[in-house]
């Protein structure tokens, strides 16, 4: 099966080297990772060491800006069309590492407008409700509340004003080329690329967007006109996809609930799902497995450990070899993963509960939030 | 010369009866005017009596809503691309009469986003600067500061959120049919119809839009989907055009400065412009004029008196006949108009100066303004 990657869908087992060529991005080299280590004076997190982030645009310039004192800022987002799963949250942990270790501002756009516009069956109230739910999950990751501004498009409508100069640069024909619009597309969808690009102009610094590589096309338009408006082209760090339980092809999908572990799943239920659905690289029988060894490179369980659930490098490598050598059976590995996932969910759900008290700070009253809102609220009306 | 009316241009001497047929609107009947008098317990102003407003959509339903206690609200606007002239301000005086005599809320949209998007040579700073200048002229008209909300799209960006459900109803193809977009149109322009329709949903009442008839197509889209979103179709009162100095064809145009009297013109200069450029219905010589009589129906001077500068009906009719009978020479009439215009300008410019102190109230702190801003500013940030 050939693989296919568009911003809407990921199909097949992905050849990431080929994607780099196709999207015209740049491999994330050892040199850049070394530089990252040096500048942050920190150990690299597993997301980088293990090449979960594997490609970039202008990350070299981001590091140069940082080194030379011009700084940069982080921008990421979430389209609130349903509950978040593990595949959604992992990039936020990587983003948290970047914020912590570079000490930079982070803007998180919650695109309740986009999801309402693009999903025929969702009401605006639906996406606003999901926005709140998703924000709890995001806050639970543990960002700095004074250096992070979580803004919901339907609320922080200042974004509209910021999108206007962008929307004067982008023709229908340009937007159509990237998003595939046609005569029946709604005018809200057609305008949306301007809203998505606007946060890259929140500061007069380079923005760095950590996102799965399928999101790359969305930033091409921004990179075409940013400099003509006196801003920087958006830089990006591209991640691979977090696969669903049922196979390494594609990415974890909210529309196939049996392939995903939701952040609000009951830990017991999550365990049952993994036990039942997780595709491993195991052989047909325990006997064969002991003789031939397993195939960790084809195994979702191993992939999940590699991407997120086994931070200990040594333990991960040992597990890889033990599998290959036939010393491990799939059941053992699954049980190990289940425990890791359950611990993570319990911890996350506790923090998610605590997040309810922090929403106001991240959205309105934290240092960065207030700074942004002050630009949005006319002086006579400010609190 | 054939006449032609689109929202972008008015050419030729206009046949208003034909326009009613072309646009599919309804004549403003004596019956509706009688009803207006009865409900407001007021004398009709010259704008109605003299058929400057001559056509409508659903004005009958507006009166019914008012009579039966459901009420209505007024919505109008201004595209701030340059200084305002007399042709721009007259509809605001008519709107003021409606507000005063029906006692209703009025929303005035200042479309600095639109003018920036649609005018290649204007910067966003330009249209924001013109927004301020134009707002002074509008305030000078004398609206009720607690029942009038003047909002600038780039500032009151809550309008974006309100436009989103509209923008999910309107396809590119629908917008193209009304506005004539093509592949090279900017995505901001394509979205704009949703922003323009949004204020008709500010209240769950019928909105009444007093505007020149060439603006009617802009509201067709709104009327197509309003009810499907649980709101009222916009009602409208359509005015004729205020002609420029150089002839009854077309409308006073800001792009032809010699045909217009600007609200900020020095009164002496305005007088000179009228004296030099105003086209009258006069004969070639004073002798001919005395013998044959003048032609007030072809005279810009008379038209300006009729539309705005001679509120005294009796005096207007006497002047009409005196002209027809050859008792008046054009110079006399011009001098009379010049005096009226100069008095108006002096008075307006005084009020315009005083308006500077009222901007804050109309935009932010008046009763209606504050009510609207309260919906736009999250509770923890309110003043």
From TrEMBL, chains A, B:
Major enzyme class: ligase
Motif ('KMSKS' region): 251-255
Cell compartment(s), UniProt: Cytoplasm
Location (main, coarse): cytoplasm
Assigned keywords, A-Z: Aminoacyl-tRNA synthetase, ATP-binding, Coiled coil, Cytoplasm, Ligase, Nucleotide-binding, Protein biosynthesis
Biological process according to GO: tryptophanyl-tRNA aminoacylation
Function, in words: Catalyzes the attachment of tryptophan to tRNA(Trp).
Name of this chain's protein: Tryptophan--tRNA ligase
Gene for this chain: trpS
